Fold:
Amino acid sequence: MIAAKPASPLTIDRGVAAFRDICFAFKAPYTGSYAAAARYGIKKFETKQRSSWIGGKYAYSEGATDDRSLIVGINPQGSCIVQDRRHPGMADDKTIEDQFAALIRTKYPLASRLRENSVAYTTVENGKSIDFAFALDYKGYNMFGSPL
Structure:
């Protein structure tokens, strides 16, 4: 009788893995994130300017792989974002979201969806709300953000 092969572990999505290693492993000002991003092939970070309705103008750093299939944006005041270009053969949205949620819960076991149809996860630590997001942006990327 031949023993059955054990089931292979589910491969973690590249975007979730990059988010874990680049953003989730660090806190603002994300100084260690730059070296982690380099391990994913992220090249030269450039300073960019943006503004938001709530926060006004702010500066952030953005770097990408040569083919721009993976992009990292870091705002040292508080957010880190990974964008992974969607491609045929990648896991479905539900699988990727489940992996993202499982990752968040490794550090924040009480994190839950912000709303029923939302892909934002939130938790409270020391009286402060901490929010994470997974979204498909209009340019064809899965976006993972921490904290928002």
Summary: Residues 14-146 form one domain. The chain has one domain: 14-146.
